Amino acid sequence: MAKWVLTLKKDEINMTIKVKYFASPVQHFLLKGVLVFLIGCVGFVLFSSLAEAQGGKRVSGRQLPPGDYIVGSESSFSQFGGQLIKPVLRWTEPADGSGASGWDCDNSPGLIKNLEQFGRVIPAAIMGEDSRCPLDYSSRASDVDKMFYGVGALFYVGPPAKACQNHQGKPCQSTGHLVGDGDVVIASAHGFRDYYSGRRLSPSEARGMRYSVKVWVPRQLRKDPTVEYEFRHYEIEEVEFGNSDERTDDEKDYAFIKLKERPGEFVGPTDAKGYEIKSRRQRVPADKWVKPLPFKRFNRNAVPNVVMTVGFQMDKGWVVQKNCRPFKIYETPNNPSHYLADKPGMMIHDGDTNGVASGSSLALLVDGVPHFAGIHTSTFPGGDANHFGKFDINRRYNFAIDGQTIYDHFLEFRRRFGRN
Predict the structure, then answer these.
(1) DSSP structural state of residue 228
(2) pLDDT tens, 182-237?
(3) Rounded distance, CA 388 to CA 121, Å?
(4) Sign of CA dihedral 389, 393, 394, 398
(5) Pairing of strands 3-8, 184-187
(6) pLDDT (tens digit, 9 = 90+) per residue, 257-292?
(7) CA dihedral (147, 149, 154, 157) positive or negative
(8) Rounded CA gap, 420 and 417, in Å?
(9) In angstroms, rounded to a whole number, what is the distance separating the alpha carbons of residues 370 and 149?
């Protein structure tokens, strides 16, 4: 069996083929001639493809960096920090199938246009190019995309009606994610805080939030028979915060949420206002239920530093966004004046976010499967002038809570509902 390895260097392309066989001298000579011919043909095709890729739209005008690449069934070249990982290939391919994996998702002009439509500056944290793109819910979605379908929007409905509002005077809204169990959500605590009064909802008031997530709908119950996934809203049974006031400790800016039911297990049609008609619900096959992200103990330094996230973004409305270029987690610099210097439970990252993204889960690949690794909570520095710019580990970055630091608390919360 042959294994093809393509190595790119600055001024040359090398290809090797490793073949294990047994043959006579004559067969060896003939086979060697055939292999030389094949290598020449394949080398020419690959060189032509690379030359086209380096100068064309498929790589946004950028040359492929030196390194080893795998030519796989995905028909694309992919390398992230020296890690050649199939789940990353399936994650980074644009939903419409265009472009090389991860290199054709710059939509910064769209962000600028949307920001202008709001008529005011919205706090954002785009690190370099805007690499956000829609999470695919179509029949073309990859198995990796589906691992993140547990993402949902938390929004306040009350009572009381105006106890939690954002800076636009609209109900509080943030992102959460189903983690560990099909009915448990992890989110940010500050998403429950009223912008005007500065007051955070009490645990009982927090039940006035709803968790909105896309679920698979049987064909006969859909608004559009061709659209498999629709939003459904779920009530909250209980909320527990990291502490009494997350403003005093960034490491405690999280919330555990137990929903009253598992999203997607029972689904009904919606009325004219978008509310589910529960009397017409049907039980959905288990393989169609919304899957939570796995959460367990693991050594972050022992897994690839290739981070994936999904979430809601203020400038994108109800279209779930993912980072179609995986990003990285960074250790806090050994600098006493750094904002996170005395916060070992925090992680720096260079993913792209915007308002409402707080509470988005960061995921790392553990044994090739995305696992919950942290909660995106904020940006440094804050302020209206911080929309665009390059990532700088000391001066401009996003940060998140390290999931491993809240794991014990998470298990304790689950035990209250009989989970082992």
Answers:
(1) -
(2) 999 999 999 999 999 999 999 999 999 999 999 999 999 999 999 999 999 999 99
(3) 12
(4) positive
(5) unpaired
(6) 999 999 999 999 999 888 899 999 999 999 999 999
(7) negative
(8) 9
(9) 12
DSSP string, 249-313: -GGG--EEEEESS-TTSEE--B-TTS-B-GGG-EEPPGGGSPPPBP-----GGGS---BEEEE--
CB-based contacts of 319, cutoff 8 Å, min separation 6: 134
3-state helix, strand, coil in the chain (%, to 5): 25, 30, 50
The residue type found at 145 is: D
Q: What is the pTM of this model?
A: 0.74
Using CA atoms, how far residue 1 sits from 17, 19, 21, 81, 86, in Å, is 10, 6, 8, 28, 20
Nearest to residue 122, comparing CAs of 348, 349, 317?
A: 317
| DSSP helix/strand/coil, 229 | strand
340 and 332 in contact (C-beta within 8 Å)?
yes
Choose among 3, 8, 1, 2: nearest CA to 69: 8
Q: In angstroms, how far is the first alpha carbon of the chain from the final one? A: 46
Distance, CA of 379 to CA of 376 (rounded, Å): 9
C-alpha–C-alpha distance, residues 43 and 63, integer Å: 18
Please choose, from the candidates 324, 327, 316, 413, the residue with its C-alpha nearest in 3D space to the C-alpha of residue 374. Answer: 327
Q: Which residues contact 307 (CB under 8 A, 6 or more apart)?
A: 323, 326, 327, 328, 329, 349, 351, 362, 363, 364, 373
User: What letter represents residue 344's amino acid?
Assistant: P
Q: Tokens representing 297?
A: 């103990």
pLDDT above 70 covers what percent of the chain? Answer: 67
